[in-house]
Amino acid sequence: MSLRGAVKELLPPAALRVVRRFTESGAIRFEGNYKTWKEAQKVSGGYDRADITRKVYEAEIKVKQGKAADARDGVSFDTVQFSLPVMAALGRIACICGRPLRVLDFGGGFGGRYRQYKAFGLPAGVSWTVIEQPSLVSMGRETFESDELHFSVSIEEALASGSPDVILLSSVLQYLESPDEIFREVSAARVPHVVIDRTPCFDRDQNLLTVQRVPPEIYEASYPCWIFSRTGLLRALQPRYRLVAAFSDPAGPLQGPGLKFDLGGFMFDLEN
Predict the structure, then answer these.
(1) d(CA 83, CA 87)
(2) Angle, helix 3-10 to helix 179-189, in steps of 10 degrees
(3) Phi and psi for 110 in degrees, rounded to 5?
(4) What CATH number matches the domain at 3-18+25-270, 3.40.50.150, 1.10.10.10, 2.40.10.350, 3.40.50.300?
(5) At the N or C end, where does the chain have fewer CB atoms within 10 A?
(6) What is the pTM of this model?
(7) Between 254 and 46, where is the model more confident?
(8) Distance of alpha carbon 178 from alpha carbon 220, whole angstroms
(9) Of 5-9, 38-42, 105-109, which gets the smallest average pLDDT?
(10) pLDDT for 15-40, tens place per residue?
(11) Which ranges constitute the DSSP H helices of the chain?
């Protein structure tokens, strides 16, 4: 399957991309161990939830209107929810490039991480392209697109406007049926830098396929979710990419079916 097909068929709405503890009680749950994606789908809900997308959209509108500082999962915040490792990675890449960055944000919703980049005070003049489902792209283009922020339905479409310096994969790989296909596409594009963030990882040899259940306090939903073997995830971009740094989300370990895992992040450079 091409990346265009993967985006259209597999990528969940922006609201389904953040795996994190919403409360100290760990209201988000991970249940079951499934052999196939179809098996996990049978016991979980679907991705095409217009009500969830609308909730996320309305939260982003509040930010655009200055009524909130940031938004995630359709929840508004009084302060910007920076991912400091991602900001550090983008700042490093900007220094290496010595010019305004060209960022490809795979699964970037309505451009929340672009807002964070701007709020963090990183170099101006960035060209930021979000890859999303066609419905979100249409909404994004109508309401949020600017001279710097753009929306595309595929990497192929985005590449037509020029090669990016970095691909950002934040809280998205775990919701794809075949994440290895995305890695193959990324490697084939030979983008100089890859940044992965908020991706479930644990120290076992095999990936685990489970179901993530979100409580109604956020939005009531469930969907298949991968917990990745850390070593397997690192191998997926080898030998073309070199690992520069690894980090974990400060929220700490999460509880899965009979295991604990964290939300890992990685910075990669293309090997010469």
Answers:
(1) 6
(2) 140
(3) -105, 20
(4) 3.40.50.150
(5) C
(6) 0.87
(7) 254
(8) 25
(9) 5-9
(10) 344 433 343 334 688 999 999 999 99
(11) 3-10, 37-42, 50-64, 84-97, 112-119, 134-143, 155-159, 179-189, 230-235
Q: Classify 265 as helix, strand or coil.
A: strand
Tokens linked to 181: 């296909």
Domain extents in the chain: 3-18+25-270
Print burial letters for 87-113: b (CB count within 10 Å at least 16), e (below 16): bbbbbbbbeeeeeebbbbbbbbbbbbb
Backbone dihedral region for residue 32 (phi beyond 0: left; psi -120 to 50: alpha; all else: beta)? left
Q: State how beta strands 193-202 and 166-170 pair.
A: parallel
**For the ranges 11-15, 84-88, 113-117, 242-246, which has the lowest average pLDDT?**
11-15
How many Å from the N-terminal Cα to the C-terminal Cα in the chain? Answer: 28
Q: Do 93 and 257 form a contact (C-beta atoms < 8 A)?
A: no
Residue type, 196: I
Bridge partners, residue 271, by sequence: none
What Cα–Cα distance (Å) separates residue 81 from each residue in 51, 68, 121? Answer: 23, 11, 14
Tell me the backbone φ, ψ of residue 65, rounded to 5 degrees: -85, 0
Residue 26 falls in which region: left (phi positive, over 0), alpha (psi -120 to 50) or beta: left
Query: What is the biggest distance separating any 2 CA atoms in the chain, rounded to whole angstroms?
Result: 49
Token pair for 90: 């983008």
- Say if residue 173 is exposed, middle or buried (CB neighbours under 10 Å; 0-12, 13-18, 19+): buried
**93, 117 in Cβ contact below 8 A?**
no
β-partners of residue 151 are 130
